[in-house]
Amino acid sequence: MTKPSQPSSPSPSSPSSLSRIRVGSAPDSWGVWFPDDPRQVPWQRFLDEVSGAGYEWIELGPYGYLPTDPALLAEETAGRGLKVSAATVFTGLHHGPAVWERTWAHVAENAALAQAMGARHLVVIPSFWRDDKTGEVLEDRTLTPEQWRHLTGLTERLGHEVRERYGLRVVVHPHADTHVDTEENVTRFLDATDPELVALCLDTGHYAYCGGDSVKLIETYGERIGYLHLKQVDPAVLAQVVAEELPFGPAVARGVMCEPPAGVPALEPVLAAARALDVDLFAIVEQDMYPCEPDRPYPIALRTRRFLRSCGA
């Protein structure tokens, strides 16, 4: 397809050029959840449109959606002025040492591609306690003390191995329908893990979905914030989701994650709190929209990038 026109870049004197926050987007914002799905846009179209919307940074998304040949992917991204910030993996480390080898095999292929693309982060999402499509309860939503020890200890091991072998920083992503979700569970996880080995990927939408205050978390645990996902929740839809006890997949299909600035949390104070940390930080836009019509994401991406520039990002 024809590459969308590139909006003009902010001038050197604009607020965004003075910020240490690097804004990007991800396949998730184009409705991509799986390596291959007929309801998802082709990877070439995603790359064309994310570049055309004015973003310079992307995440890899589900392994196998974008080309896994580093040379091909480098050619395709560089030709569109794009760079890779991170790869993403799902893990179930609370299950203990028995899952380590299987987990590492999954991590290693993602980490190797991320490293080859010049990325410096690996986003780690804990596994779901209920099926995100059917709502089937897969395990207890509350971890036992032993499972917490497995989760924290093996996440530290993962952080060490990923850093030593691939030069990446592990950033753990609190997520709806996982065991690291609410303020209580997120702070418990942070208090029990080594800051040198494990940082946090704060997803503002998921944290709000689970009742958390992103600004408070940044102000309280600023040294642990290693990465941001920018996302908003529609409060009215969220109220329905909670009342009906919907799993995350159907909640997304209903539109629980919405286009900013229509939802919560307000992103201006989140970005202000992040800037106050005075550290280099990625802020990757993620608006869960699976499934969605193929022509829907690009106009949203254009408006969202414009909105974030108005916030100084």
From TrEMBL:
Superkingdom, natural source: Bacteria
Residues making up the signal peptide according to the UniProt record: none
Annotated spans, Disordered: 1-23
Domain Xylose isomerase-like TIM barrel: 48-293
Alphabetized PANTHER family for the sequence: HYDROXYPYRUVATE ISOMERASE, INOSOSE DEHYDRATASE
Protein name (database record): 2-keto-myo-inositol dehydratase
